Amino acid sequence: MIQTMTGTLQRVLVRPPGTDFSRWREYGWLAEPDGKRIAEEHEGLRQTLEDAGAEVVVAESAADPNPDAVYVFDPAFLTDAGAILLRPGKELRRGEVEALRADFEAAGVPIAAELTEPALAEGGVAFWLDERTLIVGLGYRTNEAGAAQLGAVLPGVDVITVDLPHYDGPAHCMHMLTIISPIDTDLALVYPRLLPVRLVQLFAERGVGLVEVPDEEFGSMGCNVLALGPRKALVLDGNPETRRRLETAGVDVHVYEGEELSRKGEGGPTCLTLPLVRG
Known about the structure:
Order of helices and strands: EHEEEHEEEHEHEEHEHEEHEHHE
Mean pLDDT: 95
Strand content: 25-35%
CATH topology: L-arginine/glycine Amidinotransferase, Chain A
Number of strands: 15
CATH superfamily: L-arginine/glycine Amidinotransferase, Chain A
Structural class: alpha/beta
Distance between the termini: 6 Å
CATH class: Alpha Beta
Number of domains: 1
Strand order of the largest sheet: 2-1-15
């Protein structure tokens, strides 16, 4: 099963960082990562995932000199029928799709479909509200054609689109999972100031409780959290108030170090992992 955001993580794909960071400015990283430290942080992330009970599958396809390739969540979307290869709105990342095709083949993951022009979509813009309801955020990285093609290859799934905020404009990566992280079927971590109104209404209709990320921790990826299972979450170290609020809501919080891995490239634990199987 994979059409859930919060089932127990059983198998997950990750891609280690490369060694060539010469194009970090071109890809929009805030600073050049330290090669030794970023590799150590990724090893720590993998160990944390294994300690949580997940089988960690390491992608072996070539990634250099693309530092974004470590954020393996975005070029594909997993369904119960297999992987949908996406067409990223960030043009520099489109080569990652073919790399992931090889990784899926090696991991025994079937390809269910592939988006084609003019569709644009990245993994971080969509999440399962339940196994038959997919929320897709429309913005600078995902367009209506992308959402329509996703709907066409997901029979029996209700695809609901909502508009993402402009925020800092097209150069900034505003994904749906930038402002919401599901923690359980009835609980989500959110940054309320940027939530689409329709999504707030849907949560209320479904009885989903909300844990709010404070303003001062939104920019440090306080809202980018990976559910390891129901009410069990992996968070980036350095957001103590968000962690406190999660724990107050009954969430078992696990922490990883990501100064090089996450902060410099602005990609949290959701971006760094591609769940293949959840229970």
